[in-house]
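sry for the spam today, last one i promise. struct tokens for design, 306 residues
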């Protein structure tokens, strides 16, 4: 898969002396969904703002579709749609006119049939003549996506697109994003909802303190860093674990003991562990396993790599 965006040694230091990005390099593949994760102030929004031409980098080079973002910024920007974190709309304008205006800003000819397809995909067609001030917060975010797609971009940046959106609407928007990917659109997503990245992303990048700690295929990341937890439910509570079971964590009520292990290791130690319960005369009621989530992986990586 070819690179749609190439970033080399990108840095940004603001006039205040704050270093927002330092030596960031990566390739973003055509047609993939890349999720960028990181705490507040990690540099995610600065990274997106530079690639979209809104912030000038202090150093490094970025090409978008083969166009340098500084020397050939018009051609590069024409390939990009941006859904910003903040909702900034003309509240007394209608939905359809807002999207038409955005398309016109890129010098595109009028094409109401194309805009209708976008609004229908975003469940906004029935609201096309409504003023923006009449819409809910979730609907306004959909309008932002419609604006970003109005000129037919090949790349879509989503900066916290579902912030403040309820769970049902969030999942509906995930379906919209998947549909865009199926049409070949490259999507870069920043989010605080780790389940969002886990649900949609092909690859995950982790940024902290302006540094790109890693970029990895999501499945590889989960395979390499994921863990499973074995929870043993006891028939009767105990006050302490015997030495043979000291590697487990006992719950406060004494009824559950948890064991963390690598599911891909040659030996997990589970068989020996369960035998130890029997040898110690501790009666087991039930056993369950749980796979670690991307949130667990993220927290561990930030701790270990920062």
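last one done:
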């Amino acid at each position: 898969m070819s690179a749609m965006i190439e970033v080399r040694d990108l840095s940004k230091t603001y006039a205040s002396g704050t270093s927002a990005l330092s030596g960031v390099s990566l390739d973003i593949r055509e047609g993939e969904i890349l999720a960028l994760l990181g705490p507040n102030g990690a540099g995610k929004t600065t990274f997106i703002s530079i690639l979209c031409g809104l912030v000038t980098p202090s150093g490094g080079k970025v090409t978008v579709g083969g166009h340098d973002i500084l020397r050939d910024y018009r051609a590069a920007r024409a390939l990009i749609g941006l859904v910003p974190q903040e909702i900034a709309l003309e509240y007394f304008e209608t939905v359809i006119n807002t999207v038409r205006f955005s398309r016109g800003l890129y010098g595109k000819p009028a094409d109401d049939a194309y805009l209708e397809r976008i609004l229908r995909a975003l469940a906004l067609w029935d609201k096309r003549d409504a003023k923006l001030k009449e819409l809910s917060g979730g609907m306004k975010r959909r309008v932002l996506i419609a604006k970003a797609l109005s000129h037919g971009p090949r790349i879509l940046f989503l900066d916290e697109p579902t912030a403040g959106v309820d769970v049902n609407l969030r999942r509906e928007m995930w379906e919209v994003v998947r549909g865009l990917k199926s049409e070949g659109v490259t999507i870069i997503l920043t989010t605080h909802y780790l389940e969002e990245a886990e649900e949609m992303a092909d690859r995950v990048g982790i940024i902290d303190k302006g540094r790109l700690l890693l970029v990895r295929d999501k499945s590889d990341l989960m395979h390499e860093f994921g863990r499973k937890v074995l929870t043993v439910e006891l028939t009767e509570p105990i006050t302490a674990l015997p030495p043979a079971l000291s590697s487990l964590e006992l719950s406060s009520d004494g009824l559950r003991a948890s064991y963390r292990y690598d599911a891909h290791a040659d030996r997990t130690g589970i068989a020996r562990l369960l035998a130890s319960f029997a040898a110690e005369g501790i009666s087991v009621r039930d056993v369950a396993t749980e796979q670690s989530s991307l949130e667990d992986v993220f927290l561990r990586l930030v701790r270990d790599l920062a």
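The mean pLDDT is 87. ok im logging off now
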